[in-house]
Amino acid sequence: MYELGVVYRNIRRADGDVAARLGAFGSATVHEAMGRTGLMKPYMRPIYAGARASGTAVTVLLQPGDNWMLHVVAEQIRAGDIVVAAVTADCNDGYFGDLLATSFKARGALALVIDAGVRDVRVLTEMKFPVWSKAISAKGTVKATLGAVNIPVVCSGALVTPGDIIVADDDGVVVVPASLAQKTLETAATREANEGSEREKLAAGVLGLDMYNMREPLQKAGLKYID
Amino acid sequence: MYELGVVYRNIRRADGDVAARLGAFGSATVHEAMGRTGLMKPYMRPIYAGARASGTAVTVLLQPGDNWMLHVVAEQIRAGDIVVAAVTADCNDGYFGDLLATSFKARGALALVIDAGVRDVRVLTEMKFPVWSKAISAKGTVKATLGAVNIPVVCSGALVTPGDIIVADDDGVVVVPASLAQKTLETAATREANEGSEREKLAAGVLGLDMYNMREPLQKAGLKYID
Amino acid sequence: MYELGVVYRNIRRADGDVAARLGAFGSATVHEAMGRTGLMKPYMRPIYAGARASGTAVTVLLQPGDNWMLHVVAEQIRAGDIVVAAVTADCNDGYFGDLLATSFKARGALALVIDAGVRDVRVLTEMKFPVWSKAISAKGTVKATLGAVNIPVVCSGALVTPGDIIVADDDGVVVVPASLAQKTLETAATREANEGSEREKLAAGVLGLDMYNMREPLQKAGLKYID
Amino acid sequence: MYELGVVYRNIRRADGDVAARLGAFGSATVHEAMGRTGLMKPYMRPIYAGARASGTAVTVLLQPGDNWMLHVVAEQIRAGDIVVAAVTADCNDGYFGDLLATSFKARGALALVIDAGVRDVRVLTEMKFPVWSKAISAKGTVKATLGAVNIPVVCSGALVTPGDIIVADDDGVVVVPASLAQKTLETAATREANEGSEREKLAAGVLGLDMYNMREPLQKAGLKYID
Amino acid sequence: MYELGVVYRNIRRADGDVAARLGAFGSATVHEAMGRTGLMKPYMRPIYAGARASGTAVTVLLQPGDNWMLHVVAEQIRAGDIVVAAVTADCNDGYFGDLLATSFKARGALALVIDAGVRDVRVLTEMKFPVWSKAISAKGTVKATLGAVNIPVVCSGALVTPGDIIVADDDGVVVVPASLAQKTLETAATREANEGSEREKLAAGVLGLDMYNMREPLQKAGLKYID
Amino acid sequence: MYELGVVYRNIRRADGDVAARLGAFGSATVHEAMGRTGLMKPYMRPIYAGARASGTAVTVLLQPGDNWMLHVVAEQIRAGDIVVAAVTADCNDGYFGDLLATSFKARGALALVIDAGVRDVRVLTEMKFPVWSKAISAKGTVKATLGAVNIPVVCSGALVTPGDIIVADDDGVVVVPASLAQKTLETAATREANEGSEREKLAAGVLGLDMYNMREPLQKAGLKYID
Lengths: 227, 227, 227, 227, 227, 227
Known about the structure:
9-stranded mixed β-sheet; 8 helices; homohexamer; alpha/beta; about 230 residues
């Protein structure tokens, strides 16, 4: 499925400003705005609580136990990018540590999303370089086999095309295709606008049952109250 | 096994004061006081370190990918309750977020224990609304199929009858049947009383081998020391 | 495979000073210095972020759901030791809590590494007694069956011989055989020395591709750039 | 939650004939007839393909790594019973082998359902003694700690009360409370009766879309066909 | 990421004859021929040993616990197709049983590949209708929420575009994009041709070390033999 | 922990006849005879039901996604050996298929035990070449990085020294150190001798409670019968 041994240098990035604004809504709202699709598997967790990032995806395909291509992708990073790393097989090795983070950060990367393991998490946390990963492991890797850079990849169950927008926080990682970014932003904004007044009402003790007019459909579905 | 499409409005809650006092002992002590039974599976984790809660259970049975009944259970919450949510199948979706938390809190709920996923964990953490869950996921849910409220449920391997006491902290979630609450409280108190002096002795370098008179039974069991 | 019912009182500990210096390098560097071997499985996690410890191993073999031997091993602890606990079967029970931690600490133990569960993690965190474990669980254990103390054990996939050096931090747990400690220290020191200047260059925007001379081998492997 | 150290000798068993007839429908049909509840977790698998059994439950609660109570429950077995074994903690040890199977069979047991491991599966298969378990393991167990016999237990996520009907086959294990057995039988029979003619139509190429009148609700839900 | 509520009726299927010939090579050979990419996760297992199938993909996206769209996709099946079913969240429910299999078979489907659970496996086995799934479960599903048919889906970690070739057997499930089918066939044929003579030599005791000329590169890599 | 890049050509193998006789007892009996130690994790499963093998271990340490050393170990195989393959990290790739099996068999190997994945399982089954593995996967591997041959390895949680006896069947894989082989054989024989008469009695309806004199210790432990 994957084209190996290639590096695509020119990708069409989604608008960085849209990425920033989507990030402000958070992954849960953006995921809803996309019809509840585009989410990576929930095993992807930030290495520190409160991590959040949004940006444009540069992608890299790695081989098991081999981080060679992370050095190749570093050169393709531009300010505002998030590196999205997939692996051709399940692997928990620590592909990425503080040296690569220093390099990525110097190139302008905002975060790493990797369907594998990372290490040096104490230093990464101190650097405030956010990473979402499947595992944490001190296990290092070799540099022997080619993967690819900036091809479409499946990462943690989600398809990521280079240039897509990534929104990541404590709740998970959502992928927004560049072509849907603007529309998703509008849907998210509308949704968020409603949530403000809803929150107030709920805080005042109003029930969702009433606010969302659920009593009738629940009754139709057959719900019975028993005293 | 489950009665579906029903909401029991009148349940007999255990004494709230007993719940509070059991909570002060913590889940490990309470679990010991119950003969090492009543514990949910250890995959149930608090969404933030240091979370702790104890209260009376209102229960809800959910369908996979469907959080409709969380709105129904909200109405049945009274001050001092903990909502215990079971699902009819394994599901990691994010059933619960900051809006429902606002509603639950307004109704007097102290916590949520859910054998599924939750989202908006940053806001839930800021609200100090403690949740014990199987997963964290931005994935939202639909509202289409009935479950039930305030029926006995199996949540994370433990049977929870409405009105039971729930004790939850960093170590896990324990269920104390209402009928055993008072006796468990007494056993826990006795146990805790002993622990104080034990801790002092151990801190002074006394060995458990001596303090608990283990040397003889170990020898009888055949333990040999080799120099 | 295991000799049961025995306690070896005299073990040859690696040099404590070497242990301390290896600990300063961290598990990732030490693991690299050992040719990327000696690491426990990545499911071993510290009970609190930022935990780190290094010391000499005293080992204990436990039976499922039975923590009797933890009291036996306590007597064998000397200042600077780390207790490494293996179990003869997979078990997530909470074998260890604040009382045993008080005892271990009084005897001079620096940490516990256990291929099972622990409890009282709030208190352990307050005590700053670091533990690496497979699980957290309020579930207590019995005291009925013999295991062994200070025999070689397989813990979380790694062979640990009594007296070996353990280096544990956020990235995981590495075992350094006593006989390789000095050499590993030297290799780690060399490695670390290089990393300082590398980090500076990477921070200045130099690419790993150039710094590590990767462009030629990548080209030979067939990597193609596409505009 | 559990009463320990007790053996209830008199339990009210559901009708054995009803159990046999429910078994003929299979676990999937019975599960549907119960409103899609009562199913154990799908990790419960038969030790050989094609295993199937239905009967009345005698229950046993075991301690981790300890099969003492399996000998106690043997005495309580009557012809037509299925032994349902829960454990107070997660454990994959091999609690049950060919000797116990010989004993269970001699007492009239039809099967074992155990939320743990078993061994001697080659002999069990030759004996045609069906077992549903979480694991297969040569690991033996001790006989040291009391559990209980014929108390209600939570086994693999399902509540089992002594005397309930168990229906187990390749698709899983369903629990039918004694009080619902007759009604479930009727619902299952109705369901099955319909399936015969449905199967014929589907085999002839009729679509479920038409047979179940789904086209209109799909259209209402907004489904669009694109050429 | 996904377009919901749509059914694409016209898809461009890869050549059925190429699919059949790729199937004869088996998933391992095809996977190698594709540069070791295109494989679904190894948790996908056939419901019976020896199952094998190859054909053209029609795809369906399902919602958690909801199999409505399987009835919709049935209408889109043509002779030689394999249905590939993805779910928007992790779910082990039994989405598919003998009635749907009867319908799929009548429409000409050769197999089902589903990233979820199935049931009625005994009957499916008797029907010789092969299924690759993540789980087996008697748990049924509702029909309430729209997904999509014949959109590109990520199934078990692999991207499947409608019309792609699926090769499935005991070793797993491989996806061959329609555009690469012919070339993959040629590569696989070459590979297979070599394997025949290699097998003969190996059977005669010739070592891979010699046959593949590995001794020199191993020596260069530093391998040392110790007597 | 591991010495890399080495092949030990001379190992001291345990007696092949003892291996054969231990194999006849099966893994469960041998495991008991060793005091319930020496068992690999229960995730190790045979690729076909009824597989069984016993022999002397030649060991190999592999790197993630890299099967180069399997060709190296092939040369070290002698008649009666079982190859035991460990990996330096968790990996489910298909390291081994029918070509390597042909080679191993030609060299006299009786089986493979591998803490990773294998492929071509249909052909391996037809060849009757038994394999115990963690996974089945069509995913192939590279040949780029050195491991080691005939060093002590930790495989699936058990320490295996070259020359040890391996006993593997449906119940799992047990390792018997060469030095304990004779004694284990005697203990197993005694144990098995008793089982014959026990089986007869149990088949006749005698209870383990009586045969093993458990009634008194159960009563002492506090067991109560309730009518």
